[in-house]
């Protein structure tokens, strides 16, 4: 509204359009592209992502040779070649889909990388429990491709933002990861398969590993969390180790039947499921009671935020799962 003659001119505020130095200097500092610690750290991380994501499909010949000469996959060797080509081909096919989604929802790219890493780890862990070729096709083929593409494509887009003038150099270092991964990973895989093989560990040892990993993630990551970021890390690590229990069910049924041939697999599996059902029903009211009891805990991090008693209870119950492995190690049975 324009001033009238009756309105004194001194009622209007004079606004300084020049930005003040204090406001500009106190704002968040954005890391500069084409150099600096952050840019080079990202490039190192991108190199590792490139090496790991593409190194496994390009070194599948090592897996194929091992699977073709060892049971339980040797009897169905004609389908093994599908796994490596499916993983690489599906990642190429998913590339335009993931890139388009990341451009449409750029604020979700970071979540996409975490999700991809979780799926990638899940694919590799569950493939170690495979007892048939079709299970390897799903884990090392389909799941690995989905996780790898979700992790890799946002990283490629980040590279375009971190490097402008030195983009050619950065791309060269980034893509060199494929060559390094293609050389190093087959050597590591060949040594690991010949030294440790696949499915050579007793199921009690696998449960011991799953219980120990779950317990440590609960006490050390969840317990000391003070923000959402470490909780994301906890979710991924706990999901990898905690998910190992369900993956062991089939082997556990076989283990029970080896001790007592009269045990029916359906009944044993049903008892496992019933145990999980009891836990699901009891967890609701039990969690409420533990949260109520942990309000007065005088501790730091998440332990002192009302979750202390729940964290300790969850960690201790995870520790109980390690007893079969410890008992077998001590030759108690």
Care to describe what's here?
The chain has 333 residues and is an all-alpha fold. It has 14 helices and no strands.
Distance between the termini: 91 Å
Strand content: under 5%
Count of DSSP E strands? Answer: 0
Helix content: over 70%
Listing every helix as H and every strand as E from the N terminus to the C terminus, the arrangement reads: HHHHHHHHHHHHHH
Task: Report mean pLDDT, rounded to a whole number.
Answer: 78
Shape: globular
Structural class of the secondary structure composition? Answer: mainly alpha
Main sheet attributes: strand count, strand direction, barrel closure: none
Number of helices in the DSSP assignment = 14
Radius of gyration, taken over Cα atoms and rounded to an integer in Å: 27 Å
Report low-confidence residues grouped into runs of 5 or more: 1-27
Distinctive features:
333 residues, single chain, mainly alpha
Question: Could you give a short description of this structure?
Answer:
By secondary structure, the protein is an all-alpha fold.
Please outline the helices and strands.
Layout: H1 21-25, H2 36-58, H3 60-69, H4 81-104, H5 109-127, H6 133-162, H7 167-196, H8 203-222, H9 228-242, H10 244-247, H11 249-259, H12 265-293, H13 308-320, H14 323-329
Helix pairs in contact: 2-4, 2-6, 2-7, 3-7, 4-6, 5-6, 5-9, 8-9, 8-13, 8-14, 11-12, 12-13
């Amino acid at each position: 509204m324009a001033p009238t003659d009756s309105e004194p001119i001194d009622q209007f505020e004079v606004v300084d359009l020049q930005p003040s130095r204090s406001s500009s200097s106190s704002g968040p500092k954005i890391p500069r592209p084409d150099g600096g610690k952050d840019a080079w750290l990202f490039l190192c991380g991108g190199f590792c992502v490139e090496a790991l994501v593409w190194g496994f499909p390009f070194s599948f010949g090592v897996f194929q040779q091992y699977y073709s000469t060892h049971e339980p996959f040797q009897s169905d060797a004609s389908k093994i070649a599908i796994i490596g080509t499916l993983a690489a081909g599906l990642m190429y096919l998913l590339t335009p889909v993931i890139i388009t989604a990341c451009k449409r929802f750029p604020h979700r790219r970071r979540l996409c990388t975490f999700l991809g890493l979780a799926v990638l780890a899940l694919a590799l862990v569950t493939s170690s429990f495979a007892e048939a070729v079709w299970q390897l096709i799903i884990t090392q083929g389909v799941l690995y491709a989905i996780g790898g593409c979700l992790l890799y494509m946002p990283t490629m887009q980040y590279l375009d933002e971190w490097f402008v003038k030195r983009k050619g150099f950065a791309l060269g270092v980034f893509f060199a990861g494929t060559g390094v991964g293609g050389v190093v990973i087959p050597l590591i895989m060949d040594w690991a398969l010949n030294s440790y093989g696949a499915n050579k560990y007793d199921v009690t040892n696998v449960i011991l590993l799953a219980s120990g990993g779950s317990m440590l993630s609960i006490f050390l990551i969840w317990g000391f969390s003070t923000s959402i970021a470490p909780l994301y890390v906890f979710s991924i690590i706990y999901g990898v180790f905690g998910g190992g229990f369900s993956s062991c069910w089939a082997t556990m049924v076989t283990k029970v039947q080896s001790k007592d041939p009269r045990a029916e697999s359906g009944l044993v599996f049903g008892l496992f499921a019933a145990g999980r059902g009891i836990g699901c029903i009891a967890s609701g009211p039990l969690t409420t009671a533990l949260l109520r009891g942990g309000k007065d805990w005088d501790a730091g991090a998440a332990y002192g935020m009302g979750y202390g008693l729940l964290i300790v209870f969850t960690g201790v119950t995870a520790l109980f799962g390690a007893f079969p492995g410890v008992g077998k190690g001590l030759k108690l049975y």
